[in-house]
Specification:
This protein is mainly alpha-helical. It has a domain of about 80 residues.
Length: about 140
């Protein structure tokens, strides 16, 4: 199978572009405009119910709490030495093999469990708050 190489033409168009330029656009189906307008008018509008507003505000509050508690958890990981313990455990695995109980006990004492739990609960609340926002939304069809 050989590929034919053609020299560029002075007008910048190749053979395929010339053929495509000769094609006529397909005709518009009759009644297409009326069907599109009828569909857009028939589409139900989403009303702002009290539940939707509460879900939006609750989700926003949960995102703010998740960000603040996540920041505090990260700050506490660094200050309590838990991040250094995790790094040490990943770099020197023989330390964990030699004394796994002591390593896990030290890690458990250094982790900021309260901040981690607050972050996890806040992220869960974001997901719960987002559930009502998706109700009644239909996927797009062609």
């Amino acid at each position: 199978m050989s590929v034919r190489h053609t020299e560029p033409r002075p007008d910048g168009f190749d053979d395929i572009e010339r053929l495509l330029a000769r094609l006529e656009p397909p005709p518009v189906p009759p009644g297409l405009g009326a069907r599109v307008l009828a569909y857009t008018i028939r589409a139900p509008r989403r009303e702002w119910s009290l539940g939707l507003v509460v879900a939006l505000l609750g989700g926003l509050l949960a995102v703010l709490v998740a960000a603040a508690s996540g920041y505090a958890a990260g700050r506490e990981l660094v200050h309590a030495g838990a991040l250094e313990l995790l790094r040490l455990g990943l770099e020197e695995r023989e330390l964990i093999v030699a004394a796994p109980g002591d390593y896990l006990l030290a890690l458990a004492e250094a982790l900021p469990w309260g901040w981690l739990a607050a972050t996890l609960l806040s992220v869960g609340a974001v997901f719960l708050a987002a559930r009502p926002l998706g109700r009644g939304v239909q996927p797009a069809t062609r």
